[in-house]
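Team,

Forwarding the record for the chain on the shared tracking sheet. I've put the sequence and predicted structure together so nobody has to dig through attachments.
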Amino acid sequence: MSTREVKKNMRKEATLTMVKAPIQQIHGDSVLANMKSADGLFVVGYDQRVTHWSNSAQEILGFGPEDTLGMPCYEVVGGREENYRRFCRRNCPIASEAQRGRSTANYDLRVQTKDGADKWINISILLMGGRDERPGHILHLFRDVTQHRRMEKSALKALLTLQESLNPENGKAAESPVPMPTPRPRLTHREQQVLRLLSDGMRTPQIAQSLGVTPVTARNHVTNLLAKLGVDNRLQAVLYGLENHLI
C-alpha cells in the first residue's frame, strides 16, 4: 500500500466517527433510505464530507460507499469544467451558495470514473435544511450525459460537412455545443477590487498601498481570491476574470 493510500485510509477512519451521526440521520429519513432512481445521488454536509452515496452513484462512477463516506466530495468527484479547469474544490460555488441557503441551477461536469474513464455528468442540487440545530445537507442528483455530448459533437460534425458542401465559400460555421455552465463564484466587493488590481499588474506591496492595508493582509486577500476562483496563480485569476466578465 502506497503512502498516499495509507494517509487516505487514516483520514477516512478519523472522519467516519464525525459523520456517523449525520449518516444515521439521513438514512433514518424514509425519503432517502427508500429512494430508488436511475440518477446517482450523493449527499454532503456543509463541511463537504460525503454522508450518503447511493447504489446508482456507484453504478455511474464506480466508487462505492467504502471509497466515499467521510471523504471530501471534491476529492471523490474531482469534477472539471469544459476547459479542464477544476471546479470541485474546497468551498466551491455550490458549497458557498448552500451556506447562504441558496441552491444553484443544473450544471455539467467532466469527471473520471474509478477505472479512469472520462464521463460527462449533469448535476442538480437540492438543499436539506437542518432540524433541531443540526447542520443541513447538500443533495447532489446526477445523471450520465456522456452519450448525449457525443451525439451533439457528431451532429455538429455532420452539419459542418453539409454546410461546406452546399456553400463552401460563405457557409457560416456552426457553433460548438456547450455544456450547461458551472456556477460562478460570487465575489465580494473587496475580492473584486483585488482582482482588478491584479489585472492592472500590481504586486502585493502595491495592492496593499492601494487598499490601505498591510502587505500581509493584501497577500491573504490574494490567496483567498485564488482559492475562491479555483486557480493556481495570479495570471490564471486574471484570465478567469476576463473570460467570465468579472473585470
